[in-house]
Design brief:
CATH class: Alpha Beta
Strand content: 25-35%
CATH architecture: Alpha-Beta Complex
Structural class: mainly beta
Helix content: 10-25%
Radius of gyration: 16 Å
Number of strands: 14
């Protein structure tokens, strides 16, 4: 099945946007959104394999609500932000922690944007079908075991705040994606750590958005 937005103009991601996840990462609660990005070459759809790169041995999972922009805008007022949202989908912010955290300077972009590291889907659910994006249950299962379970009401920065904030930096365009951050339970924060391995199946379920399912395989 193809990704609902197969070639987004921009893929903008938010780090540390759930209080409990910031705490488990050993990071302070951010005063402003933490921005990074992925390239569109990372996008894949449901049932397509997440490919573990041969140069990383600590690939982690992150369940996320994704905002899909529907209208061009710059310097968008927070109280007008929902007018620029076309809808929502599920995203998986796959992360090579050894690249993200232990390369010189902290290579967030490199660690986050390997090919296949941004599964999205299964569908674009239009904004009018989601009464409140801040009251959606979110869960990630690894081989059937629940690893992340939370609700989008735990986000530090709302969808409205994120759209307004990002639009100060770049012009948002139709098809742009905003990955809004992940709840606690990620693999690198567990004791012992849990990283993805060939043969794994990852399922992310968000209330009213469906289930995004992807197998995991090794790079040839």
């Amino acid at each position: 099945m193809a990704a609902p937005i197969p070639d987004p103009p921009k893929v903008i991601c938010i780090g540390l946007n759930y209080r409990d996840h910031a705490a488990e990462s050993g990071a302070p609660i951010p005063a402003e959104p933490v921005l990074f990005s992925k390239f569109s070459s990372a996008i894949i759809g449901p049932e397509e394999p997440i490919v573990l790169p041969r140069v990383s041995h600590e690939v982690d999972y992150e369940a996320e609500l994704v905002v899909v922009i529907g209208k061009r805008g710059r310097y968008i007022a927070e109280d007008q932000a929902r007018n620029y949202v076309a809808g929502y989908t599920i995203g998986h912010d796959v992360s090579a922690r050894d690249w993200q955290l232990r390369k010189p300077g902290g290579q967030w972009l490199a660690g986050k944007t390997f090919d296949t590291f941004a599964p999205i889907g299964p569908a674009l659910v239009t904004a009018d079908e989601i009464r409140d994006p801040h009251r959606l249950s979110i869960e990630l299962r690894l081989n059937g075991q629940v690893m992340q379970r939370s609700n989008t009401e735990q986000m530090i920065f709302t969808v409205d705040k994120l759209v307004a904030y990002i639009s100060q930096v770049v012009t948002l365009q139709p098809g742009d994606l905003i990955f809004t951050g992940t709840p606690p339970g990620v693999g690198f924060a567990r004791k012992p750590p849990v990283f993805l391995k060939p043969g794994d199946i990852v399922e992310i379920e968000i209330e009213n958005l469906g289930i995004l399912r992807n197998p995991v395989t090794a790079e040839d």
